[in-house]
């Protein structure tokens, strides 16, 4: 495998876009079918405009433990029914790889799950949130502005989205009576 | 080895201090004896007040490739003679480990060296600078404010300061006629 040979610089634009990025993911609600708990609200939102939920701007790296992937995520403000916009969530394919998040703007939660346990770490500008090895992770925008954060993870971590697609996260984040509320996920299958 | 078991959050204070930190390094000029090219200016500065040059606030991690160490550095503004304040600089003990820097405030250069080659990557707020595997790295504050940045590197990277202490960096960063100037290091031994 060829490792990165020369130093380089990237810039995070004011809107959170990483420049240059070598891969960009844009997920609309239709790319997350069945992930929100309120199926009727999801159908309505899809019929109305299939909103853009989030974008990930990534600088890809060789799949080697000593390299570090850098990406930024811009998670839009919004809800599907009473459930805040969120990312799909994933485990690392190589399960023992950690990840570091650094909040740039907006507010939210980093949801983490492992063996049926769940934690919800606040994400704020200037806050570092640590995803330990073996924990699935998903971010949720609980505020009125885009949630923008920088992430760094080992080059050989990889992504496993399928497990969360199949089993769901143990908890979901809702607005209830105007409050951000972390609740058990009724759609959790195991 | 016990890996990190639970998620957690850290905060970067406005002054750049990482809270909580599990280890803090404070380096005064006397801790960097002989590293600046102007020995007479160094002696004068040491005699006057032995200035604090930089602080590193780190959250230590298990020495495992899948974990990620997070630290912030606050590098003071100043010069020794015409040479800007800088960090000691190091290779990673495990040479094939990369590092990611993210500029929070202030301006400077990330100096990198490998096999006698050198690069100088600008560090600005919102800028990401990548230290590839095998490159020694040192940061230099070229502005009037503290240079503050976040760094992330693999848990098993380790530090080798001795090689740079012995050989010096290929280049140094000076103020010449009011301009930031990267120049060959006259004290470079090999």
Give the key terms.
mainly beta; six-stranded antiparallel beta sheet; homodimer; 45% strand; 2 helices; 190 residues; Jelly Rolls; three-stranded antiparallel beta sheet
What would you say this structure looks like, in words?
2 copies of one chain form a homodimer. With 190 residues, chain A is mainly β. Chain A has one domain (11-184): Jelly Rolls. In chain A, 8% of the residues lie in helices and 45% in strands. Chain A contains 2 helices and 15 strands. Chain A has helices at 39-48, 162-167; strands at residues 8-12, 18-19, 23-28, 52-59, 68-75, 79-80, 83-84, 99-105, 108-114, 117-123, 127-131, 136-141, 147-154, 171-176, 179-184. In chain A, the strands form 5 sheets. In chain A, strands 3-4-5-13-8-11 form a 6-stranded antiparallel sheet, with no helix packed on it. The first copy, chain A, starts with 7 loop residues before the first strand and ends in a 6-residue tail after the last strand. Chains A and B meet through strand 1, strand 8, strand 10, strand 11 and strand 13 of A and strand 1, strand 8, strand 10, strand 11 and strand 13 of B.
SSE layout and pairing:
The structure is a homodimer of 190-residue chains.
Chain A: E1 8-12, E2 18-19, E3 23-28, H1 39-48, E4 52-59, E5 68-75, E6 79-80, E7 83-84, E8 99-105, E9 108-114, E10 117-123, E11 127-131, E12 136-141, E13 147-154, H2 162-167, E14 171-176, E15 179-184
């Amino acid at each position: 495998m060829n490792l990165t040979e020369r130093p380089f610089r990237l810039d995070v634009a004011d809107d959170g876009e990483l420049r240059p990025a070598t891969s960009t993911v844009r997920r609309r609600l239709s790319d997350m079918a069945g992930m929100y708990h309120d199926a009727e609200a999801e159908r309505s939102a899809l019929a109305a405009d299939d909103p853009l939920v989030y974008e990930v701007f990534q600088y890809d790296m060789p799949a080697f433990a000593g390299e570090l992937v850098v990406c930024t995520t811009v998670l839009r403000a919004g809800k599907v029914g009473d459930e805040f916009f969120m990312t799909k969530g994933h485990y690392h394919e190589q399960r023992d790889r950690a990840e570091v998040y650094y909040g740039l703007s907006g507010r939210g939660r980093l949801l983490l799950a492992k063996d049926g346990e769940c934690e919800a770490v606040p994400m704020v500008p200037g806050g570092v949130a640590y995803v330990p090895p073996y924990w699935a992770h998903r971010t949720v925008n609980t505020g009125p502005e885009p949630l923008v954060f920088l992430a760094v993870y080992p080059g050989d971590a990889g992504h496993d989205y399928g497990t969360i697609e199949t089993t769901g996260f143990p908890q979901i984040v809702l607005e209830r009576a105007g409050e951000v509320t972390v609740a058990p996920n009724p759609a959790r299958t195991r």
